[in-house]
Design a protein that fits this description.
Blueprint (H helix, E strand, L loop, with lengths): L5 E10 L2 E7 L8 E2 L2 E3 L6 H13 L2 E16 L5 E16 L8 E8 H6 L8 H11 L1
Parallel strand pairs: 1-6
Antiparallel strand pairs: 1-2, 1-4, 2-3, 2-7, 5-6
């Protein structure tokens, strides 16, 4: 059986020196904080998926602007067998409206001060800080 990586979109929303994160309820990364996002559906662009997933997970509306970076997410078992393989695409989004409310597969959704995320003391998915810094550099 041939397997292919799954494509996921991550919505990176900055607003008033804060960043919007969700606490995941499902694997991979259940319980960790990360950018709202999920699977890209058939016939949907990554930009559209980021906007849709953002709304579904947080009730926040934002305009997708541009691609930020691609992140490989590979999880392997003890023998090296690949269990999870995603290509995650970070999308810069401009906040338009809404107050974060956890929905879909998010346990929680909140704005966090940028400095708090940079300190790294929040349990976060891998590379959240890297993608945040990329978003801040690229605008």
């Amino acid at each position: 059986m041939t397997q292919s990586p799954k494509i996921g979109a991550l919505a990176v929303v900055l607003h008033q020196d804060q960043v919007l994160l969700v606490q995941r309820s499902k694997q991979p990364d259940a319980g960790l904080w990360g950018f709202p996002g999920g699977h890209v559906e058939w016939g949907e662009t990554v930009l559209q998926a980021a906007q849709r997933e953002l709304l579904e997970e947080t009730a926040v509306i934002a305009e997708p602007l541009h691609y930020l970076d691609n992140l490989d997410l590979l999880r392997r078992d003890e023998s090296g067998e690949t269990l999870v393989h995603y290509l995650l695409v970070g999308v810069a989004c401009r906040y338009q409206s809404g107050t974060p409310v956890a929905g879909d597969d998010a346990l929680d959704a909140r704005w966090f001060p940028l400095d708090q995320i940079r300190q790294g003391n929040l349990p976060m998915s891998n590379r959240v800080i890297d993608l945040l810094e990329t978003a801040l550099r690229r605008g």
